[in-house]
Structures are given as C-alpha cells and as structure tokens.
User: Fold these one by one.
Assistant:
Number 1:
Amino acid sequence: MNRIIKIIFFDILKNKTLLVYTLILGLLSWSSFGLEDNSSKGLLTILNVILFTVPLVSILFATIYLYNSSEFIELLLSQPLKRTKIWISLFIGLTSAMVLAFIVGAGIPLLLFSPDSIGIMMLIVGCLISIIFVALAFLSSIITRDKSKGIGIAIMSWLYFALLFDGMVLFLLFQLSEYPIEKAMVGITAFSPIDLARIQILLQLDQSAMMGYSGAIFKDFFGTSLGLVISFGLLCLWAIVPFFISLLKFKNKDL
C-alpha cells in the first residue's frame, strides 16, 4: 500500500499541471501581500483563491487523473491486492500531492506574512478544501466510465458549491424575509463546505459585521469553541462521506 502511494505521489509531482498550479498559487499569494498596504486585504484576496481556485483545480485535476490512470488501476486490480487498499492508496497519493501544492504555493506566504491564528486557520481550511474536492472527484469518476460525463459532473459539483448554493440561499432569504430564519441558516451552511470555510475565516478576520444580523448569529455559534469543533467536524465529514461512497461503488464495480 505504501509503495502504491509513493508511486502515485511522485508521479503527480512530475505533472506539469500541478507545477503550474503551485506557481499560480504562489504568484497570487505573494502578490496579494506585496501589493496591499496591510495583511488583512491580502488575506481576503487569498480567501477568494481558497474558495474558488483551489476547489476547481482540485476536483478537475483529480477527476482527469483518475480517468487517465484507468489502465494503471486495472493493472493493480490484476494483482493480489484488495480493492480497498488500491482506492485508499489512490486517494492518499492524490490528496497528499494537492495539499503539498497548496502549502508550497499559498501556505508559505500565509505563514510568513500572517504568522498568527488567522494564517494557520486559512492554511488548515485550504488543505481541507483540497481534500474535500479530491474526494468529490473520486465520487464523480466512479459514477460513470464516460470521461466527458465524469468531468461534467465534477464541474457541476464545483459550480453548485461555489455559486449556485449561495444563489439558492439568497433566494430563500429573499422569499422568506418576513420570517425569522436566520438561525436556520446556520444549519443550511452545513450543506456546503465552501460556505463553512468562508464563514469560519471571515469570523477569524472579524468581518462578521459585514454579514449583518446573520453575521451575529454565525458568530454566536461558529465563534465559540464548540462551533469551531462542529464546523471542522462537518468539513471532515465532507471529505469522508463522498470518498466512502466512492469506495463502496469501487468495491462492487465491474471494471
């Protein structure tokens, strides 16, 4: 199992797409801190990178890699290896490479320019977002053998969490503005890992005032130690559940 992880990890590190991704993250991060007059503005810029660029690249790269590695996976299946070990090895190898790319590209500038709880929080959240969308990529690729459909599912998943979900929430807030649904919004955020990450970082940046009364509700819940534990627990579930579903499908799938 460790040998498979090493093969996959070092194979991905040689991939030019991952190198370009790391370089772009580095350029965006260093320039954000270098061009802004204070670190808070730079952190908000990197926040947008974490919430949009990192999920998109993670889910697309992982989905395409899995489809392109179909022959390698079939070769592994012909060996006396359990399917569970193969799928877990692929997941660990991919997530390790994506997390390393994020740490090198965005993590180093974060720790240098914001060596406090905010920088560490953004680093942890960025790593979790990378892992979550790799897990969603595994689910997307195992649903169908058609590469174009799998990539389409991956893109639609990103669009839903990055854009459509917020639009649906705003629509509900507008339609039900006469009702006290602010507390219910705390529960609704659990259905989007990007929203969980955004709220947690904004609270650390003390930007909850920008979110109005809802911001006060979020701060009362997610700003507490219990809320912090729950939000990170939910983010971990977003990584575990999609991968576990894909693992069950992979174990029973006729390749």
Note: The chain has a mean pLDDT of 84.
Number 2:
Amino acid sequence: MTRLQNTLIKNPQAVMTGLHGPLARAGHVDIRIVDGRIAEMAEGLTAHPGERVIDARGSVVYPGWINTHHHLFQNLLKAVPAGMNQDLQGWLASVPYPRLNLFTPKLARIAARLGMAELLLSGVTTCADHHYLYHANGTTETGDLLFDMAEAFGMRFVLCRGGALESASAHPGFSKTALQPESLEQMVGDIERLKSLYHQDTPDAMRRVVVAPTTPTFSLPPTLLRELAHSARGLGLRLHTHLSETQNYVNFCREKYNCLPVEFVAEHEWLGPDVWFAHAVHMQPGEIRMLAQTGTGISHCPVSNARLGSGIAPVPQMYEAGVPISLGVDGVASNESGSMVAEAHAAWLIHRAEQGAAATTVEDVIHWGTAGGARVLGLDSVGTLQIGQAADLVIYSLDHPRFFGFHDTALAPVAAGEPISVRYSMVGGRMVVDDGVIPGLDLERMRAEAWDGVRQLIQVDD
C-alpha cells in the first residue's frame, strides 16, 4: 500500500459503476480522486498540480470487488486429496476440521497473507472472513492477526467471528476431532474485546467485527442462538452464518425442528437488514419472501457450491424478489481459487445454464459483487463509482489475447474471466496494487512459506 495521493485516471475504455440498470455504465469518463474520494467523473479532465496521472488506455475500471464470505485459513488446504470428491459433510470431516488444532498463529498468518494477496490480485478491495479457528482451549490470536494482515495490505476487512457452542458429539465437524467448542461466555467475551480494539461504525470503515457462529443449526443450541443475536445487536454488530448450503441441511431442520431453515432462524431473531447468510442454495418461495421482506442478505458462492455438489442457489429469483445479493469466494479448500473474477464469471454462467440465457447479465453480477456486497456489510460509502464515494476501484488490463476481439470491452473481465491482470487497485485512494504489483510483497518468500505450511498440514493424510 502506498501513501494517499490525489489521482487522475485518464482514458479508460470503459467504466462500470456497480449500480443497477441504466446507471451500470459510466462510459469512457476520466475519474479524479481527491483525499481518497471520487471528486469528478467526466470526459476530458485535465491534471491538477501534484496529481498522479494514470493512463488507463487499453483498460477498464470497475468498483473494487467486495467478497462477503471467505475462510482465509483454508489457503493452505487447496486440493486436499481426501476431500476432492466428497460432499460438504464428508469434506468438512476430512479436510478442515481434522486440521483445526494444527493451525498455529504462524500458519494462520501464512494462509492469510496468501489469501489476501490472491484476492487483491483479482480486484478485491474488501474481504469479510468467516473465521472459525476457535475452540475451548485454543488461542484467540488468529482473529487479531487477520486485522494486522489486512492493514499491512491496505484492504478493508470484516472479521466474522465464528465458532461453535454445541457439544462435540452433535457438531458434524467437531465430532471428528478431540476439540471442545467454546462456551457462550468465551465467544461473547472475545467479541466484546475485538469490538473495543478494531470495530469502526463509519460507512467507509476499514475494520469491522461481525457475530458469526459457524451454523445456526449445528453450532449452538437454539436457546443460545437468540441470546447471541441479542448480544450482537446490543453491541451494534451485524450477524452472519451459513444457511441451507445442502439438502441435508434442510432435511435436518425439518426433522429436528419441523420447519424450514429460514423459518427456524426467524423464530430465533436471525432475520433483518443487519443479517446475511452464506450459500442459501436450497430455498422455498416462502423463504425467499421472508428474506426479501426483512432485508436479509445472501452471499452467493457458486464455485464452492458446484465443487461440493451442493446445488445452484436460486439467486435470480431472490434478486427479483428484492433479496440483497452479494458474492463470496468461500474457502479455497472447497474452491481452489480466491479470485473474485472467477467467482463472478461462474455466477454469470451457472444460472444461464440452469434457467436460460436471460437469467443473469454481466451488469447484474457486477452489481452483486460490488454494491450488493457493500449493502450487506453496511458499508454505504463503498461499492459504487460515484462522486462522493470512497475511491475503492480496480483497473483491469485488457492486454491478454483472450480479450482481443471484444466488441463490448466493459464486460470483458466477467464475460471472459481469468486470466486477467490487475494494473492498479486502490482502497480509499491508496494504491494497494501498483503497476501490477502489491507494494512490498515478497512473492518468493510467500511461495516458500506456503509450501512449508502445506508440509506441516499434510501429516494428517499420512
């Protein structure tokens, strides 16, 4: 990350705003950034004294992607053989949970550095990480180091403080380990500590804390679910968790609680504009209406859902109903990529394959991955390219042969997908990728650390 500097972006081939409908495209406008905010968007702007001028000829400008569901520690768990052909439950039992006790703060730091670098180099400027490396006798340090790492990279960061409060025999992940879940007092106490140290309430906050038990049905008893919601709202914090990722999840809820998952969380005060759920793959029309009526958001993770055979979320129907939609890459242990460009590309294609060519547009997907993400995170000053908004944006180069021949270059990053090169990316006007490089990042050191981390974790397979 470089120092804050006023900047003029000249001559882009196209600018996408992240807005919905006719306002999605700004055309060939130049963009002036002053004191970290967008001050002007117009053709033919001339440089002011002291401004840095970036010639964006041959490039397109997008709002920075807002990744609303991730598991950064999983960046050292890509393509674990035991989990490659498993469904979600088998994958949980064979990949992440047997290794939770192996993730020292050092390994968590290595994984986070790798994950954040990959996100930045795909155009992400904000990351919400659902971090559940917590258990009764473990350290809480791994959550704090994520804030440190995000600050070093200059990325906006939201810690969705996860964990389980259920008995080890009932939780499908903990049942395969000797670990014991936390108590409610441990979890809430650490959330209060994290809030006092890191949380910012501003609409362009660099750091946020969210209350995020791993799942509402498996991770804690129903009585504690409502209590945790009360604690979160008493602290002024948002709520996040997984929901309806698989059909088994729906079946469990029907059999144990005699209701659908959205009905279950509604009974325990887990709906509202301060709540968003990851996945929501298996949704009934009535559940979609409940989400829309309450303003409850969704983090759509199509690649992970496809990789685990979980299904395809009815996102076009949710979006049409008015449910706030965002995008997340999920953990790379069930994705193998932390690229938001790849996620957006998949989101554009997967619903068209299932529902027809009119199901999704590129403009829809950009809106979900930028403005939609800002909405579910409550970051109202980011997510769109408009005058007055924080200057969180990415400049994609179109110099790769896969983009040659495009008639509508504005759509190229999403329509063609990876590989794509981020020329520049900024967060609040500060460069976090400068001329294709993350300032100060030692790629060779990162590579060596990652391989060393994999060697330490691979012992579980032996």
Note: The mean pLDDT is 95.
Number 3:
Amino acid sequence: MKCLISLLVLACASFPALAQVSSLVHKDEKRRYIVYTPAAYDQAPRQAFPVVFNFHGGGMSMAEQMLYTQMNKTAERHRFIVVYPQGIRQDWNVGFGMDYLAGTDDVGFTQAMLSKLKQDYRVDEKRVYATGLSRGGFFALRLAAELPQQFAAVASVGAPMPEPVRQHHIQKDKVGMLLIQGTADKVVLFEGKAASYLSAEDTFAYWRRHNGIDGAAPQPRLMPGPAGDATQVTWLEQGAGGAGVALLTVKEGGHTWPGADAFNIGLPIGKTTRAIDANEVMWEFFSKHRR
C-alpha cells in the first residue's frame, strides 16, 4: 500500500489547506493524525462542528485510510470534521497480539487527540463519533465500550465485537452502534471466531441488550446493488432516543468499505458493494445521535 501515498498527494492537491497532519506526545511517544476540515468551517466562524474519527485497518496508514474511504467528500457535503489517527506500527490495541491493559494506550491517545481538537478547533462535544475498518473497526468498538461519555455513536466495518472488549466492558452508558459486515469476508468472519470476536449477529444482539432494546428485531430492509453487482445489503435497525443499533449485512461482500473504489486498497479482499455508500449511511446514522 505504500505506493498509494503518491496517489494520495495528487488526490489532496486541490484541498491543500483543508487536510493537515498534526501531532502530540502521549506517554513519551509522538503520535500523528490528519485533520480534515470542510470548507464550511471557515465560512461559519461561530459554529461548532461534529467530529468523526476514522481509524485505519491493520497494516494501513492514516493517509491510506483517508484515500480509501474518501470520507472527506462526505464531510464537505454534511459539514463535519474528519480525523484520521495513525496507530503505532500501523495497529490498534484491541487485545489481539498485545495485552489489552498493558499494551499500547490507544484509548488514552484518543482522549488526548480529542482534548487537543477541542483546543484547536470548534468542536461540538455532543456530536463526536468514531468509525474504522477491520482493526480500526474493532478499536471503534473499544471506544464505545470505554468512552461512552465522549462518543455519541460508532460504526465498525468488517469488525464485530472483540472478546477482550466484551470481557472488559463495564461502562453502563448507551452508545449508538452501526455494524457493517460482509458474509464473504475471509479476513474477519461473519460467523465470528471463537475466543477472538463475536459473530456479526451476536454483536448486534450484544449491543441491543446493552442499549436496553427489547423485543424481536424488526423486518429487514433489502437493498440490492446496481446492475452487474452480485451483492445486496440487508439493513436491520432498532432503537430510539439516541441509542439505536443497526446491522448492515452485505451478502457476498468482502473485507471492504461499501461504496469505495477497490483500486484504492489494492488488495484481493473480496467484493465491494455498490448497494450503499458506507460514508453516507454512517452520517445518516450518526446524525441521529448526540451525547
């Protein structure tokens, strides 16, 4: 993926002032992140803006996540700030391969980023959200479990609930939860992996219970892809009052970001559905939730 950095430079050339690399020192380690502000930010000097943290997958970089997901375009349309953090060794601590409590303090790094963002930008503290792909999606779920007072909602792509997060989940606060998972994902399995992470459906049930949502799940909405697209999306959503839970099952979908350009990831990780645009779906979901 390193070859994609030159493409990133070209992609961002028309918005040189809107995407900036920032850094801070957390626990004696210099940590970096990209902040993208929409053009509307400078046009509304008294307005506070929502923030979406977008965490990269394992082995990826913050720049590659920005290029692959193309969330900056959605930020322009809907007027929010996007933050793309960089993980140490291109990873996030979700209890896989490192100690959950004694490993890299990515939760503390996220808190430090949020504190600095509040100093440097006009942040709407009631509308702070997180999303991510794969390891980044697992980590977004950890943030939902550990920092529910700061995040109004999260969305994970290709990342059901990690067992280490479930085992350490003691916070009672409710968080809006959107889950997107492909049935043909060979990297993170839809049916889950014993002792590692729950299935997509069990994750949906877990957060419904946590958010106090009772009763049977509603009838799903079916969203077929365009002509020539073998995928389709089944949409289940339940709950109100700022604590909804939704599961979007991508039939025949791979370990991919719905609606993204597969060229920008450059790996054979399955089909990318065109039935939905993950960024638009996320923002629609996020906009219903405030702290």
Note: The longest strand covers residues 123-133.
Number 4:
Amino acid sequence: MAAVPTPSSPAAAPKASTASFLKSNLRDYGMLLSLVVIMAFFWWMTDGTLMQPLNLTNLVLQNSYIVIMALGMLLVIVAGHIDLSVGSLVGFIGALAAVLMVEYNWHFVPAVLVCLLAGAVIGAIQGYFVAFFSIPSFIVTLAGMLVFRGLNLALLQGQSVGPFDPTFQLLSSGFIPDPLAGETLRTTSLLVGVVVAVLLFVARLRERANQFRHGMDTEPPAIFFGKNLFFSALIIALCWKMSQYKGLPNVMVVMTLLMLFYDFVTTRTTIGRRIYALGGNEKAARLSGVKTKWLSFYTFVNMGVLAAVAGMVFAARLNTATPKAGVGFELDVIAACFIGGASATGGVGKVMGAVIGAFIMGVMNNGMSIMGIGIDYQQVIKGLVLLAAVFFDVYNKNKS
C-alpha cells in the first residue's frame, strides 16, 4: 500500500515551498497580478481600445516621465525620506530648457547638459539641508515645491515658450529607426523586443544558477519559469503591438536602460544595499560604518537629475514649456512607489515594483479617460487605490 505523503515528505515539499514563497512575496506578485487584472478590465470596458497600438504608444509616452522619476523617488523613500518638489522641478527644468534653446538659441546638447547640472545642484541643495541639518525632508521639499514653482513662473513670465529644436523633440516624440523597412510592421522594433526578452530570460537563468550554486534561496521552479516566461511573452506582445504603429519610442529605450541600471544598482552594488540598510535602521547602519548622511545626500542628488530628465522629456513631448507643467506629478510618482510595494517607513521597495506601480496609475488614468470618467472621480479612485496599497503594507507589517 502506497504511503500517503506527509508535509515533510519529498512529494509534498515542493507544494509547501511554493506556497510559503508566494506567501512571503505576496506584495510583489500581487502588484503584478493587479496590473494584469486592471489592464484586462479596461481592455474589456473600452471594447479593446486600451490595447490598440496607437493607445499603447500613448500610454508609454504619457507615463515615461512618471516612471523615470519613480526610479529616483524609490531610492529616496527606501532611504526613509520623501521629495515633494519633483513636480515643480519638472516644470522649472522644462522652462530652463525652453529659455536656453528658444530665447537664447542654444544648441540642444549644451542646454541638456546645463539642465542636468541644474537638477543635480537643486537635488544637492535640498539633500544638504536634509542630511546635514537634519531638517525633515517633507519640510525641505515642500519649500522646494513652492520655490521652483515660483521660479518656473518667473522664467516663463507667465507665458508658454516654444517650439523646441526638432532634434530635441525626438527625445520624446521620435521612434527608433527601421532599417528593415517593414510596410505594415516595424520589423526592427519587433526584433528588438524579441532580443531583449531572450536576453532578460537568459540573464535570469544565469542569476538563478549562481544562487543555486552558492546555496542561496531560490524561487520554486514553477514560479520562476512561469513569471519569466510571462514577462518575456509580455515584452514581445507589447513590441508586436507597438510595431503595428510607429515602433518603439526613443523615450521607451531611455526608460528601459534606466530601469535596468537602477535594478542593477539596488540589487548588485554595495551602495544599493547600504541605502536599504539606511532606511531599515539608520542608527544600526551608522554604527556599522555606513556614511548615512552622505548616502541620504546622494539620493536627493540622484532624484534631482532624474527629475531634470523627466522635465526635458515632458517639455519635448509638449513641444513647449508651460507655467502649469509638472503640477501634481509628485503625487503620481509617490503613489507609484507606494502602490509598487515601497514601505512608508523606509527600507523596503523594488525597482520593478515602482515601475509596475507607475503603469498601474497610468493604465487607470488612460482607461478611465477613454471611458469618459471625469477628472473628479479619477482623483477619488486614485486616492482610494493609494490608501489601499499603504493599508495593505501596514497591515502585513503588524500581522508579522
């Protein structure tokens, strides 16, 4: 008579391991599942309009600057701080770029460099007050929000300034070249998507093999292959859809490179691990030899540079700098991080979680707009989603 597998027997071990892994990583997989469910819901409610090639392209363009800023905001939040000035900084940098390129006829290359330097300096100033004077980041960046909104109005003198140089516009409105010259399909963009999907899958396989070789905990095989095959199929499907319009936008390439870079920094480098240690327990990190003040300072410098990049992307997309540019962006960026799994108390958060959170917000905005839901109710729904995400985080912490 065959023995019935007990919880400790080999036959039952994989199931127990998979269940425990899913339970311990509920937030990560829950956000990914939420994005899939939300996209499916709005695809059904909009009769397929959400997944049309033109709309998918617009979805990427509309959320590119939010994703870019979310990468920097994630590090700030993980370090235990917050930055409320990023929306105003986006508007200010866009205004600075417009004044330099349109009114003073600067070439776009030195203008871009000056804008990036300005973002770094602004981040450094705010980070200095937070890190070395121990002024709460909420107060410092709230002041920055007001200051740079005012400077934006002063630079533009209350008027819109544009248009930009056509080459500069390609940052946000251009698409990667198609040397293969597909008639109804941008073949180059599709091939790029396939290559990226394969390379990412191979990289994850190698990472898993290294973890296994060193005796580290790894994902159960079913979850690992299911998740990575899903991601690969999603990348290829997205590129195939967008290839039916104009192909992959230039800003999507920029956004993807930044995502890969920050994922590497947060998971593979010493400074990344130290930022998490800083947010988890600042005193313990300091006693361990981590220069916590300088680390906090660097996170704000990084945030300033990424806000400058986002400001130029947004200005290039509108082809003009306006006094209202960036209004409310800080709320979408912070919400993206919290919805994507970052903890309000610091020390917790992942790059891909922030990206997923940004696209959850983007899909909701886009889907509700297509359905004709007014901006008033859109704000209500987004607020409730943010509250639910933070409640879920706090509830899980208290439960554990």
Note: Residues 24 and 250 are 37 Å apart (CA to CA).
